[in-house]
Amino acid sequence: MTNQGGHTGTVKPIPVVFHIGPLQVHTYGIGLALTFLFALWYYTKRLRDNGYPYEWVNASFLWIIGGAVVGARIVHVAAQWSSYAGNPIQILEVWHGGLSSYGGLAGGLATGLWLLHRRAPSIPVLRALDLLAPVLMASWALGRLLGPQLMVAGGGHPTTSWVGMYYADQVGKRLPVPLFQAFDSFLVFLCLLAIERWQTRHGGPTGLLLAAMTGLWDITRFYEEYLWLATPGHGQPVEVGSAILAVIGITAAIALAVHQVRHPPAGQGSVLELALVGSGQSEHSSRSGGGEPGDDPPLRTSEPGPEEPLGAPPPAGDPAPGNLRLPDLAGPQGAAT
After folding, report:
1. What are the residues whose beta carbons fall under 8 Å from the beta carbon of 225, sequence distance 6 or more?
2. Is 249 in contact with 257 (CB distance < 8 Å)?
């Protein structure tokens, strides 16, 4: 890497802008486009693998991206209104940067849920969000590497540590926060996969992955903002919002998991319950079916079950319903004796 303008100048380890003829292309824009395409592929795959309709995602893709960009811009402008009040036309200049991650997530989710309701109403909303949670974390990890890491002023606080990197339009070495965020998000992604295996094994509960993602991701968002991005000594909206969402998400995830363990679905009792049921069935079998050799089996006096059509012959070896077992008066081949 070369220092442009001396030790105090701006260092660009990777070009943040390049030209294709008269067209100016932002490197981070390409990275974010690749991230969106990855999210599209991964979510479609998860829907298909779980037996849900997935064609609607391809048809909704551009609408969801549009909703995410609009939401990201609205939240950013609202949080930084003093910077735009004097020249409102800058609100439309998205190419200069200024997108809120929370706003993008909210806008994309709102658009996606609306299209889910219209185009795939057979998919339960919470189930769709559970399937989406790992996709969001994997995409967020990739997006940090291909987005903010390659954009103007993408670094965190100044540092002299060996981990410091140079970023465009930032003086000196900076904490590589996008790399930290990518690592944190990937860890959350692995945790969600482990929770999903537990969820599948226990038959639920629906909404657990969404709650876990909200709690775990916002924990990382809080300490990333507090330690590496925010102005020291000043409570930022992202810090406060992350702390609130982290508490809500973790509390909801724990409550759902505890309820699932205490009240499992029918046929999926706890290990202790299954053991007790099994021992009870064995004892019942020994009392009812374990008599002396030669004893007749118990009489069948019940009516046919719902699976048995009326008038159907009884199973082989079973007496006719409501009748006593009679001695066999026929020979081996059914001839009269």
Report:
1. 236, 238, 239, 242
2. no
Residue 310 domain-assigned (yes or no)? no
Percent helix, strand and coil across the chain, each rounded to 5? 60, 5, 35
Q: Counting Cβ atoms within 10 Å, is residue 125 exposed (0-12), middle (13-18) or buried (19+)?
A: middle
Q: How many domains does the chain have?
A: 1
Say whether 18 sits in a helix, a strand or coil: strand
For residue 327, tell me if it sits in a domain.
Answer: no
- Structural domain span for residue 239: 125-264
Q: What is the pLDDT of residues 111-132, one digit of tens each?
A: 999 999 999 999 999 999 999 9
- Give residue-wise pLDDT tens across range 61-101: 999 999 998 998 898 888 888 888 888 888 887 766 677 88
Q: What is the pTM (predicted TM-score) of this model?
A: 0.72
CB 155 within 8 A of CB 167: yes
pLDDT digits (tens, 9 = 90+) for 280-324: 544 555 455 544 554 555 554 445 555 454 445 555 555 555 454
